[in-house]
Amino acid sequence: MHPISGAPAQPPGEGRNPLSAASEQPLSMQQRTVLERLITRLISLTQQQSAEVWAGMKHDLGIKNDAPLLSRHFPAAEQNLTQRLGVAQQNHANRQVLSQLTELLGVGNNRQAVSDFIRQQYGQTALSQLTPDQLKNVLTLLQQGQLSIPQPQQRPATDRPLLPAEHNTLNQLVTKLAAATGESNKLIWQSMLELSGVKSGELIPAKQFTHLATWLQARQTLSLQHAPTLHTLQAALKQPLEPDELTAIKEYAQHTYQIQPQTVLTTAQVQDLLNHIFLRRVEREADELEPLSIQPI
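The structure assignment produced for this chain is given below.
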């Protein structure tokens, strides 16, 4: 068998596989165009820059940042970017649903209706804890007027709003938490308002100040831990758990997440457990105050 004209003859078994050689070639113009189009769509839905997306994709594929993408990398790169785009599109759709829902919360007593509904139906206390399908369901029910809207209730005279000094203290704690987690101050305040159950335009009652301060400080402390557990969560509380509270939170964690005291908690689980502690304490105080409100003068 004669060698191809212009190419040196090579002994059997020592020649390069044409397919292997092609796979070591740089990305073709067509391949690069496909990837660039995916990246363009991705950065239009996120706050990422093009270089950041390229670097992230290379990291996922185990390619050094300063190494070029080769033709053989193309299938995995395309799949990686397609998956990232799918997540970004879903997040974008979720933000739109949440935006529409947030606008409706300011109408009438919708906020209380939604708060009651998600607590009863999903066992959650904040919109940020709901799945995309649950958020869509809440929005649809609210738009169609199918949620039971409670009548505004007169608050007891003891429910004075936060004093300026108390509000300033909480704001400082919010700023520290935002710096530790990267979450915006606005979103943290929104979570606090939802957790407190106040309606749009209302102020947080002063009786919740201590519980909110404990909630913020605990979130900041736990955000710095790489492997938070129920034990470290308990230690992070400035207002320690009473024995009955500790028993209740362990039972809740076991029933809801099937976790033990030494199980490492996710960020979402940490926030949900802190929310649960906050709500139990607020409800307990309300129960303690209620008999006093019906005593004759």
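Interim note for the steering committee: The longest helix spans residues 74-105. The two ends are 114 Å apart (CA to CA).
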